[in-house]
Amino acid sequence: MNDFQNWAGRIQQRTESALNHFLPPGDIAPEKLHAAMRYSVMGGGKRVRALLAHAAAELCDAEAEKTDAAACAVELIHAYSLVHDDMPCMDDDDLRRGKPSCHKQYDDATALLVGDALQSLAFQLLSQPGLHEDAASQLHMVHVLAVASGSRGMAGGQAIDLASVGQALNQSELEYMHIHKTGALIRAAALLGAHCADKVSTETLKAIDHYAQSMGLAFQVIDDILDTEADTATLGKTAGKDAESNKPTYVTILGLSRAKALAQELHEHAISQVSPYGEKAGRLIQLADFIMHRNH
Amino acid sequence: MNDFQNWAGRIQQRTESALNHFLPPGDIAPEKLHAAMRYSVMGGGKRVRALLAHAAAELCDAEAEKTDAAACAVELIHAYSLVHDDMPCMDDDDLRRGKPSCHKQYDDATALLVGDALQSLAFQLLSQPGLHEDAASQLHMVHVLAVASGSRGMAGGQAIDLASVGQALNQSELEYMHIHKTGALIRAAALLGAHCADKVSTETLKAIDHYAQSMGLAFQVIDDILDTEADTATLGKTAGKDAESNKPTYVTILGLSRAKALAQELHEHAISQVSPYGEKAGRLIQLADFIMHRNH
Questions:
Q1: Is the pLDDT of residue B240 over 80?
Q2: Cβ–Cβ under 8 Å, residues A71 and A19
């Protein structure tokens, strides 16, 4: 196991442990809702957004202990979006991370409430007293997450995605959709991580933001490539679903080889943004490499 | 028109105007989502939560200008909960405030995203820089709203409500459900209004909180009475729906006359909490009277 895998494993572990701490126990009322929230959040995924928050925090000299809550808040928003996205009125997906999606394991009404309550929990977490020494900075973090989640961010991206089914989008329209649907929250993860430092300069925030914008898009391009190439077992969700439901993807628009070239280009641009920070940018650079070479 | 009606009309008007300002315009992308958000929020309802926030703010000497954003944030959370509550997988209600509910006017997926985005917008609004001179106080307000909205508040109450369909609840179980489902947000409205003041004592917060707890419950008891007595046209939503779907109500558990007595008792208790504040409590007392005597 290399140095990055070691680090990522430690961050994933501390994120699981922090989420476990922040989520209400499954045996306090309403039990079914709490159990379903835990089912939808715990033990799942690569925690890319938490890794990103911690990697950005490292560049800004923030301690991991001070980054956990922000990283978890972003993961909770992401988890809620997956629960709602899988529902029958949205993507109608039965599988998520290799297990039945929330509405299949429970029911539609519970899945709806799970998503709603996870969103509230994210803001509850991020507004906890004393998370940041400076309350105004912490308030700004809440604002960043709220904007990234809302109608001009992630939820808006979902709406654009819905409207695009069966449409012949061009590359810039597809990009516009992804910048909102997944990009906004990925940017928020990196920015929130940076804000966990006592102080961070506007210049550094800008570099991290540009890095995150490029990697957010690269992440999506790679997702489309994986969706074309991988099988359901490796992916942990139903493979080929987007193509099947006539959704435009980078692969359907650009073809496989140009999609791969685009991912490469975005990856290089991201790295160029943070490499001036030298060793401190190490985790962000390793993370970008990891995202480039993941296979699920 | 009496003095209270004048005041309430002014608050309702300024709340409509503030919501109109805070909601993204319907002609910026994603247009359909923004139009549906406006459809679900604007021109609707009595704005009881905004009235409550402003009435509590008056007791604490907060200016109305400084209370608008908090009042709107609570109204946005309330509006999102109605949109999700009306969906087919929840109450499956076609009518809301006399017009087609969001998922009937648009579609289920849009209604899901409208609710999600309205919740984000509430936290975006409440975390705007400079809403309160003291950032730590404002952060606390965010926290209060998040807790009230989440799994131990409103969303949790919805879950308990779902689980109670067809169950023979007793009065205390029914109360437990309502304390969460509607009570938590009504308490948050009053507390947020109070926190809009530069300073507010713990004692005053406690009095306002007790007032809001009692009136929150009274509001629900009266809702159940109205649901039994009123017709669909007056109510603006499908009347008798709770009884029909075999949901327990105060009327089915206590009978009509004991339900009315309970509402009266809660009303008196609420007033006793704030009447020591004399004239300053005037709007809270008038509002309690208004809630007692509303007919829709």
A1: no
A2: no
Strand residue runs (E) in A18-103: 95-96, 99-100
Contact yes or no for B153 and A120 at CB 8 A: yes
Tell me: the pLDDT tens digits for B70-118?
999 999 999 999 999 999 999 999 999 889 999 999 999 999 999 999 9
Find the radius of gyration of the CA atoms of chain B. Answer: 18
- Please write the tens of the pLDDT for every residue from A262-275: 999 999 999 999 99
**Is B256's Cβ below 8 Å from some Cβ in A?**
no
Inter-chain touch A143–B150, beta carbons under 8 Å: no
Q: Distance between CA atoms of A253 and A164, rounded to whole angstroms? A: 13
Q: By residue range, what is the domain housing residue B253?
A: 3-293
Check residue A239 and give its pLDDT: 56
Pairing of strands A99-100, A95-96: antiparallel
Closest CA to B236 of B112, B91, B93, B118: B93
Element (H, E) at B99: strand B99-100
Q: At B146, which CATH number?
A: 1.10.600.10
Beta bridge partners of A25: none
Q: Any chain B CB within 8 A of the CB of A155? A: yes
CA nearest to B151, candidates A28, A221, A203, A242: A28
Is the Cα torsion angle B100, B73, B8, B183 positive or negative in sign?
A: positive
Count Cβ–Cβ pairs < 8 Å, chain A vs chain B. Answer: 165
Run of H or E including A169? none
Structure confidence at residue A244 as a pLDDT band (50, 70, 90):
low
Locate A226 and state its tokens. Answer: 């994986």
- For an interface test with B, give the residue of A34, A38, A124 to mutate (most B CBs within 10 A): A124
Closest by CA to A124, choosing from B146, B150, B185, is: B146
Q: How far is CA B188 from CA B84, B120, B206, B208, in A?
A: 20, 17, 12, 10
Categorise residue B255: left if φ over 0, alpha if ψ from -120 to 50, beta otherwise: left
Residue B229 has pLDDT above 90, yes or no: no
Query: Which residues from B are below 8 Å from A108, CB to CB?
Result: 89
As given in the structure block, the two tokens for residue A29 are 């009322």
For chain A, say whether B133 makes contact (Cβ under 8 Å): no
Q: Are B142 and A140 in contact (CB < 8 Å)?
A: no
| Cβ within 8 Å, pair B155-A87 | no
Q: Which of B112, B149, B151 sits opposite A37 (nearest CB)?
A: B151
Task: Report pLDDT digits (tens) over B253-270.
Answer: 999 999 999 999 999 999
* A240 confidence band (pLDDT: 50, 70, 90): low
Of B30, B128, B139, the CB nearest to A163: B30
Q: Please tell me what DSSP assigns to residue A43.
A: T
| Number of domains making up chain B | 1
pTM exceeds 0.90: yes
Distance CA A120, CA A73 (A): 10
